[in-house]
Specification:
The protein is of the alpha/beta class and 341 residues long. The protein has 2 domains: 2-157, Rossmann fold (3-Layer(aba) Sandwich); 160-340, Dehydroquinate synthase-like - alpha domain (Dehydroquinate synthase-like, alpha domain). It is built from 12 helices and 11 strands. The protein has helices spanning 44-47, 63-76, 90-102, 116-122, 160-177, 179-185, 197-214, 230-239, 247-264, 270-282, 295-303, 332-340, and strands at residues 2-7, 10-17, 30-35, 51-54, 83-88, 109-113, 127-132, 135-142, 147-151, 313-320, 323-330. Strands 1-2-9-6-5-3-4 form a 7-stranded mixed β-sheet, with helices on one face. It has a two-stranded antiparallel ribbon with strand order 7-8. Strands 10-11 form a two-stranded antiparallel ribbon. The radius of gyration is 19 Å and the shape is globular. The mean pLDDT is 95.
Length: 341
């Protein structure tokens, strides 16, 4: 079973399956890139491919690590017909995808997401990149994959915290585009054996694909709605040096804050923002800034967000159930008032 995603130069397939199905989708000249955690979980048929392994964690998503992987590819004798296979979570997909986009001015990449977050979000859409000291994902490229292969059973290997974090991106997809998915999520997904999970993943991927196809290169504001919760979430990750929260946890806090901002601006009722807060809490996600972190601490990082223009901030804000729009005219003062209220 497969789902098609279109892009400016063609299209690619998202294949649904199991760990043991992955190798059948890879060309012979594949080179696996994975992290030190996922390497231990690779099925035997994937272990047959050459592989590069980097230390697990967001701290590896850097220029320096990308450079090391470039050098290792050259040492292996990788050439333009080689295919990079990113096997892992969001960090692996972003990092390996960025290396693929830049090695020899671009080689093919296949995404094999093993975390829920990567399955429903980062593996689809072609955004790849690394973090800079100044902020998250500030260096990168648009580099669509040759294909995406989703091994559902990889979710059973996830720590509970990572599964919860992935649900933040599912909740985001629902609230920006799908009242139907919102209703599904009113009964929380609490473990990888929930029989609804494959269907929920597929629905989330379809939302992501529809948004990306409508605005692949972020030119009309539609794709920016996928950043709901991320302006504040990314700022929180940068402020805490990626050590306090995993990505989905920061996004959950960001979604709640940005929903409160939406309500403050009169875009949604305050009760709707509270519904989102309760949904995140029901999925075991954090919803408040940690002690000692203020809005003023976050604002310098929010100003560095790629969507921001001039002295104003740009945020994707809710307009209702399954409705979201980019606002480029939000002042820091309004954010401060809304979140300190």
């Amino acid at each position: 079973m497969a789902f098609t995603v279109k892009h400016h130069a063609g299209e690619y397939q998202v294949h649904w399956g199991q760990w043991t199905d992955v190798a059948a989708h890879l060309p012979e000249n594949s080179i696996v890139v994975t992290d030190s955690n996922v390497e231990r979980l690779l099925p035997e048929n994937l272990q047959a491919f050459p592989r590069l392994v980097f230390p697990a964690g967001e701290s590896s998503k850097t220029w320096a690590m990308a450079g090391q992987l470039h050098e290792q590819l050259a040492h292996l004798g990788a050439f333009r017909a080689s295919t990079i296979v990113a096997v892992g979570g969001g960090v692996t997909g972003d990092l390996a995808g960025f290396v693929a986009a830049s090695y020899m001015r671009g080689v093919p990449v296949i995404q094999v997401p093993t975390s829920l977050l990567a399955m429903v979000d980062s593996s689809v859409g072609g955004k790849v990149g690394v973090d800079l000291d100044a902020g998250k994902n500030l260096a990168g490229a648009f580099w669509p994959p040759e294909s995406v292969v989703v091994p559902f059973d990889a979710l059973t290997t996830l720590p509970e915290r990572e599964l919860r974090a992935g649900m933040a991106e599912v909740i985001k997809a629902a609230w920006i585009a799908s009242p139907e998915l919102i209703e599904t999520l009113r009964t929380p997904v609490l473990n990888a054996h929930d029989p609804r999970l494959p269907e929920i993943i597929q629905a989330s991927v379809q939302i992501k694909a529809q948004v990306v196809e409508a605005d692949e290169f972020e030119r009309n504001g539609i794709r920016a709605t996928l950043n709901f919760g991320h302006t504040i979430g990314h700022a929180l990750e940068s402020l805490t040096n990626y050590e306090t929260f995993v990505h989905g946890e920061a996004v959950s806090i960001g979604m709640v804050a940005e929903a409160r901002l939406s309500a403050h601006l009169g875009l949604i009722p305050h009760e709707t923002a509270q519904e989102l807060t309760q949904m995140c809490q029901a999925h075991g996600l954090p919803t408040a800034l940690p002690p000692g972190v203020s809005v003023d601490d976050l604002l310098p990082y929010m100003r560095k967000d790629k969507k921001a223009e001039g002295t104003h901030l740009a945020l994707a804000l809710l307009h209702g159930y399954g409705a979201c729009k980019l606002h480029k005219d939000v002042t820091p003062g309004v954010v401060r008032l809304a979140l300190q209220a």
